[in-house]
Amino acid sequence: MTDASATSRAELIAGLNNHRPAIIRTLGGVIVDIDEGLCVMEYDIGEELCHSTSIVQGGIVTAMLDATMSHAVFANHRDVTGLASLEIKVSFLEPSLAGRFTCRGTIRRAGYKISFLEGELYNADGVLTATSSHTAKLTRG
Questions:
Q1: Parallel/antiparallel/unpaired status of strands 50-51 and 114-123
Q2: Looking at the DSSP assignment, which residues form a beta bridge with residue 133?
Q3: pTM of the model
Q4: DSSP letter string over 28-93?
Q5: In this structure, are residues 115 and 73 in contact, taking their beta carbons and an 8 Å threshold?
Q6: Residue in 23, 59, 56, 55 with CA at minimum distance from that of residue 41
Q7: Which domains does the chain have, with CATH numbers?
């Protein structure tokens, strides 16, 4: 990667982080990397978003996956102004306990109006705790 492309990537990450929706800020989410067809985000989830002591509520796990997959589209298709979920499937592989998470969102196939996305959520120990597949309708501006 050239210095110019590294700078533009850093600027894109900063721009996306500066315009994060409130829900992502609430989840302590921040974009840490983007690449072709990929977005990596980190989240810091406290026990206030948990049930059964420190187990993160499933809707919060889904929100982390959804946001990261969506940002893979926004980072890679600058003309996309909106993304609506048509279908999202989450597989909970391990309990996701309160703490830091790394989430990878990947574009598997992107058409003009429909994209197929995948996500993986890892805990601070690098254990894969959940996966997701997502079909999204794109709005282009």
A1: unpaired
A2: 89, 118
A3: 0.92
A4: T-EEEEEETTEEEEEEEE-GGGEETTTEEPHHHHHHHHHHHHHHHHHHH-TTEEEEEEEEEEEEE-
A5: yes
A6: 23
A7: 3-140 (3.10.129.10)
Judge contact between 104 and 68, C-beta under 8 A. Answer: yes
Task: Tell me which amino acid residue 85 is.
Answer: S
Quick check: 74 and 18 in contact, CB under 8 A?
A: no
Tokens of 76: 């890679």
Instruction: List, run by run, the mean pLDDT of 10-residue segments along the chain (141 residues).
Output: 64 93 95 96 94 92 98 94 96 97 97 97 98 97 84
Q: At what angle do helices 58-76 and 3-18 cross, to 10 degrees?
A: 140
Alpha carbon distance 52, 29 (integer Å): 23
As a whole number of angstroms, the distance between CA 22 and CA 20 comes to 6
Rounded Cα gap, residues 99 and 123, in angstroms = 8
